[in-house]
Amino acid sequence: LTPLASGPSRLVLRSHTTPVSARSLAGGLKPPQRVFCIGRVFRPDEIDWKHFIEFNQCEGIVMDENMSFRELLGYLKEFAVEVFGAQDVRFVPDYFPFTEPSVEMHAKIPGKGWAEVGGAGMFRPEMLSALNVKVPVLAWGLGIDRLAMIKLDTKDIRALFTQDLGLSRQ
């Protein structure tokens, strides 16, 4: 929750964790660096088997002189396959305001089909310039709840948020 900067003080639910990465970069990190965070985010989605109004996002940045978009795709695929056991992963070009080029990562949920599990890209030069960063920075935000569906063999994301202790113990 982040207080608004102006007007009456009230809390706003965050829709992504990108400010964590920007704040880390603004703090004067020197390459090479790897920064990761996990945060709860909120979206006004229609609830169904792969959408929920809140989820856990795993965000990461890698800052190094030798980073490229190709390395980013390798990091993402390895994370989905090695950590969560995804059998099939694909990348689809997309637009995100902080990165260029940008890509969505999709993973195949057994028994359900393809689901977007996150967005990624190279931080835009104008963003890096404003933060006084002079090397490339890879960035991603993955909805780890959708990846957890693969690992836990769950067909509905809502099951991850249940209060049913029997299901939770499985």
Order of helices and strands: EEHEEHEEEHEHH
Query: What form results from the Cα inertia axes?
Result: globular
Structural class, by secondary structure, is alpha+beta
How big is the Rg? Answer: 17 Å
The share of residues in helices is: 25-40%
Q: Mean pLDDT, nearest integer?
A: 83
The biggest sheet, with number of strands, parallel, antiparallel or mixed sense and barrel status, is: 6 strands, antiparallel
Kindly state the number of beta strands: 8
Q: Oligomeric state of the chains?
A: single chain
Return residue spans where pLDDT drops below 50 for at least 5 consecutive residues: none
Task: Please explain how this structure is put together.
There is one protein chain. This protein is of the alpha+beta class and 170 residues long. The chain is built from five helices and eight strands; from the N terminus they run ββαββαβββαβαα. The chain has helices spanning 18-26, 69-83, 125-130, 144-151, 165-169, and strands at residues 2-3, 11-12, 33-42, 54-63, 89-96, 99-109, 113-123, 137-143. It has a six-stranded antiparallel sheet with strand order 3-4-8-7-6-5, with helices on both faces. A two-stranded antiparallel ribbon has the order 1-2. The radius of gyration is 17 Å and the shape is globular. The two termini are 32 Å apart.
